Amino acid sequence: MDAFSACEAESIDYAVMEDAPDASVVALDAGWSDVGSWQSLWEISARDEDDNALRGDVIADGVTGSLIHSESRLVAAIGVRDLMIVETPDAVMVAHRDASQAVKRVAETLKRQHRTEWDQHRRVHRPWGSYDGVHAAERYQVKQISVRPGGRLSLQKHFHRAEHWIVVRGTARVTRGEETFLLEENQSTYIPLGVVHRLENPGKIELELIEVQSGSYLGEDDIERFDDVYRRE
Question: pTM value?
Fold first, then answer.
């Protein structure tokens, strides 16, 4: 992932194919579309009698010629036409279909403003599972953490935050300082600031827990790893 992030933002046409000395091209009539915009997605999608492409929890009343995509909540559109409405856990976008290429300008604005939405989803995947940033505020944040069976987070500590863990599904093996213990559903524990700790899933089903972090700094780089099976620094 780090190597991919370090790559220059260039299309494969220019970055690879133009410099490939032995490349061959074969004609293929397969109705190809690279679906490079939301307009392209509307064009290839199945549409209803009002020319709408609807996906997810959507109510469309008096809507025509629109793409409405919902991933995490109800989207209701009334009396509009030729729009793109895209809802994800990260953000909501509303634009005219003719302006689909302008999404790039929004991405550039997010990058210029140092917004996390530019390069980070709310759900972040890790080798051991994933976490979802449910809520963030000054001096605390809440995450929903999922650890796959056999998954093992690094042995680590934080310098600026403490953590509360509440197991809502599965079984957790917790290392906290010199002690190691199991937590089952509806049980919880507290990891004080500066204490070495580790979270593992020794079970056969997904481990899910709610983590509440509190402290003066909550960035992901507030971490010192002592042991990591995935060899991260």
Answer: 0.74
